[in-house]
Specification:
Neutral Protease, domain 2, alpha+beta, six-stranded mixed beta sheet, 13 helices, globular, 32% helix, Immunoglobulin-like, 3 domains
Length: 491
């Protein structure tokens, strides 16, 4: 444990304070100023107006976000004004700021680009990148994030650039800003979003189903080709997924697509509040794998953010999201129904042939960042379970209800709770029991999810027109009828 205490002189605090208090007179508990140096080191200044007596705990980074357990290595030169005191446990990224009588304190620190220390792809996705022609960072890797003792305390934030990078920026939390004016808003909206920009970055704005969409591209030689494909895809899928979730809000959503810098990987990405950042290896962003990844991550805006279970139940957040991604791609006709069948059979093949397919649920997340099949296990197991449950709901209701009906019911349950409520296993079982027999769903959860036993499909589990055969102990799905009805939206 690395504990240290730091102070800077009262004289320095008096000298520096006017610079950060020259913001427009709008209240913010966290007043941030950012300056990019010539050698691409980001200098951060924070004037904190305390919301708790005596001390506040701050964190930097989020190790579960890409498994970056040493993310704090890029944070340095952390100081606080007198009479404030920092007690820092840098191994846990926890910083306790102490102060008398809620007196505002001035904090400063620096952040360096550590993406090449981040294990290839995950480094480019989850770590700050500061280069002469490119800026990229998630909010939790830019700003110290207060963790209050009382959950109902919410901080406000302002973000001002003193020396910005030499190109326009894009704020995931304020798409029209460009980094040219002070942002004021909720701290949570900033922490769980991102800031990015590049010399060759372009932003395209459009109206989609009463919502505003932004497509953000780093254009290369095939820039217009990317633009046309991205806009056409975004309009179709975003309209379809909003219809699936009965979304009527006018909130904005951003689709950011950037080429990878060095990593040779088809495509990967990260969902954030009101958007998705995808990074890919080629000049084009439109093949089957890329299409699915984009759609999956857009889906997390609803399933994973708006509706979620605790982290150990990734079979729901990831696996159910996989299944409804396949489903909605077929509904929007971005893939054929035959392609849906092919993708489900691919999931069956990969899961049932995996050496780790029987891993109990409580061991899945412990091994998640080992990558390989452990990383894919909750996606595949959850997707197969979602397919099975969809079939049971349809059979029980005479095809009047489906998995969408269940998810909408869970979403309504979630909306009855304030704060960052996550759906519990009891919530899932009780809500599912409105559509299938409670004992059936309880037994299925215990066997197929908690214990990790692969589902042994029989045709009496399936709707008429659906059948499963086995080849080398791997299920093979065949859809022979009812395709049109299966891919229609049912409440």
């Amino acid at each position: 444990m690395n504990i240290f205490f730091t102070r800077i002189s009262k004289l320095l605090f008096i000298f520096l304070l006017p610079a950060i208090t020259c913001l427009p007179q709008q209240h913010a508990n966290l007043k941030y100023e950012l300056s990019m140096s010539a050698n691409n080191i980001l200098h951060v200044s924070l004037l904190y107006s305390p919301l708790e007596d005596d001390s506040t705990v701050f964190t930097y980074g989020e190790p579960r976000f890409g498994g970056q357990n040493d993310i704090q290595a890029g944070l340095s030169n952390l100081n606080i004004s007198f009479p404030g005191i920092i007690k820092a446990d840098s191994t846990k990224r926890i910083f306790t700021m102490s102060y008398p009588k809620r007196q505002p304190v001035f904090i400063e620190y620096e952040i360096t680009d550590t993406h090449e220390n981040g294990t290839g792809l995950r480094g480019e996705l989850f770590r700050p990148i500061f280069q002469n022609e490119y800026f990229y960072s998630h909010g939790v890797n830019l700003f110290l994030n207060p963790v209050f003792k009382k959950e109902n305390i919410k901080a406000s934030i302002s973000v001002t650039w003193i020396k910005p990078p030499p190109f326009p920026l894009f704020y995931g939390f304020d798409p029209e800003n460009k980094g040219q004016k002070t942002f004021y808003g909720k701290a949570d909206d900033v922490m769980f979003s991102l800031i990015t920009g590049a010399a060759n970055q372009h932003v395209y704005k459009m109206t989609i189903d009463h919502s505003t969409g932004y497509v953000v591209l780093r254009e290369t030689g095939s820039g217009p080709f990317n633009k046309n494909l991205a806009e056409d895809y975004f309009k179709k899928y975003f309209t379809g997924i909003r219809k699936f979730w009965n979304a009527t809000d006018s909130n904005f959503f951003s689709l950011i697509l950037h080429p990878l810098l060095k990593v040779n990987h088809n495509i990967s990405g990260v969902a954030f509040s009101n958007g998705f950042i995808g990074k890919y290896k080629s000049d084009t962003v439109y093949n089957n794998a890329q299409l699915f990844t984009l759609s999956h991550e857009i889906g997390h805006h609803w399933l994973g953010h708006g509706l979620s279970m605790e982290i150990k139940n990734q079979w729901f957040d990831e696996g159910f999201n996989d299944y409804i991604t396949f489903y909605n791609l077929a509904v929007t006709q971005l893939i054929t129904t035959d392609k849906f069948q092919e993708e489900m059979n691919n999931v069956f093949r990969l899961h049932y042939s995996s050496a780790v397919k029987n891993t109990p649920n409580d061991s899945v997340f412990l091994n998640y960042w080992k990558m390989g099949d452990y990383n894919k296990l909750p996606y595949r197991r959850g997707s197969i379970f979602a397919f099975w449950l969809d079939q049971q709901i349809r059979k029980t209701s005479g095809n009047k209800k489906n998995i969408r009906s269940l998810l909408l019911a869970l979403l309504q349950l979630r909306k009855k709770h304030q704060g960052d409520y996550v759906v519990t296993m009891d919530d899932f079982i009780n809500t599912s029991s409105k559509f299938v027999q409670k004992e059936l769903i309880k037994d299925a959860i215990n066997k197929y999810i908690i214990s990790g036993v692969p589902i042994q499909f029989t045709n009496d589990m399936l709707l008429p027109g659906f059948s499963i055969t086995y080849k080398n102990e791997i299920p093979v799905l065949n859809m022979t009828a009812q395709k049109k009805y299966f891919f229609s939206l049912i409440n």
